[in-house]
Structures are given as structure tokens and as C-alpha cells.
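Re: pyridoxal-5'-phosphate structure - here you go.
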Amino acid sequence: MSAIQNNISQMLQVLPKDVVLVAVSKTKPEEDIMQAYDAGQRVFGENYIQELRDKYEHLPKDIEWHMIGHLQSNKVKYIAPFVQLIHGVDSEKLFEEINKRGVQNNRKIPVLLQIYIAEEESKFGFDENELHDLLSNLAVKNQKGIIINGLMGMGSFTDNESQLHHEFSYLRQIFDQVKSKYFARSSEFQTLSMGMSGDYKIAIECGSNMVRIGSAIFGRR
Ligand SMILES: *Cc1c(COP(=O)(O)O)cnc(C)c1O
């Protein structure tokens, strides 16, 4: 068994059954993805549009591709036909563009709204007020090309476990509130994407049900 296959099977053993593993394969060659694929992994996350498109075209069609990185509105059209989940929706403009491209492609594109939880200024996402503004607006709109499956967040780049605990718990709290306030009568809002190689254990303790793991599977980038 290759190192990658080993890492995948170990990861699947430690993750609770209800936590989805997104294997983050950005910058990694297609051979590496195929090793993970051969170990049974089907969900992969990418950050760059061109790379995502190339890999989608070359690799098996039963792979579920997630766009996890920052996405510019003018790039949505390139992935709209096939992307299975867009994690980082962080503006109303991007939301509208995804909806428009979903309609054009005759599908509802599943998305997660990204919430800003870290201390760093550089991370993207809505704050709590912006999130409520967006969702109360949307409640009266008829969105045909997009479906909100949940929330996503990135913790601070730190070893401070109590800080990460605090950030992830905060996001979990927002998730529960939003779910009961705006999605009480639908089953579409289920996914809370938080946790990466360095902090996924804490994220899961705080209620994550989707982790995005790159280096712990594929090695350093
Ligand atoms: C790269 C990336 C990851 C994976 O990071 P690792 O530390 O390698 O596990 C997860 N989420 C996002 C948004 C990323 O850009």
C-alpha cells in the first residue's frame, strides 16, 4: 500500500461515520489522486479553477469535486456544469453569479456560505450580521440555480487549541441558529465544513461534519 493509501485508510478509521472526508488535492498530481481513489476516496477538494477543470476532465467521472478555495465571480462559469459543492461563498455578488450559472446549466449548484471566524484579517467570509442580512433577503427570493447546504469556516492559523475550540464552537452556534431560523422546514441545510489537517480533531469535537484534509493525506505542498 502506498503512503497516500495508508493515510486515507487511517483517516477513514479515525473519522466518525457521519463526518465526510474531503481530500484536498490542490497542487498534487493526478497520480496521487488516483492512489487515494484506489483506496476508496471519492470526494476531492481543489482551490484553483484551471487545475480543477483539468483534473475533472482527466479523472474518473464518479469523483465528486468540491471547490474549496476563494472563488472569483468571473470564474464560476468554468465549474458550474460539474462542481458538486462550492465551500467558500463569501459575498452576495458571488451568490448571485452561482445562481445565474446554475440556471444556465439547468441545475441547482450546492454551496456553503463561508463565515469569518479567525483572528487573521486575511481570511474571507461573512460576519454574523451580513449572514442574517443575506438569508432574510433570500427567504423572499426564488433561487432556482443554487441551494444552500450549510456553512464553512477556517480557524486561525495557530497551535492554540482553546482559541480554535472557541472559533469552531462559535461557528457551530451560528450554524444551529441559522438552521432553525431559516431552514427549519427543509432538509437541505445539513453541512458544517470545518477542520483541516492541523485542527480537524478539534473541529469535529465542536460539531463539524465535513473536514477538508490535504497535507495529512498527500504530504506537504
Ligand atoms: C488547502 C486547504 C485545506 C487543506 O489544508 P491542509 O492543512 O493541507 O489539510 C483546507 N481548506 C481550505 C479552504 C484550503 O485552502
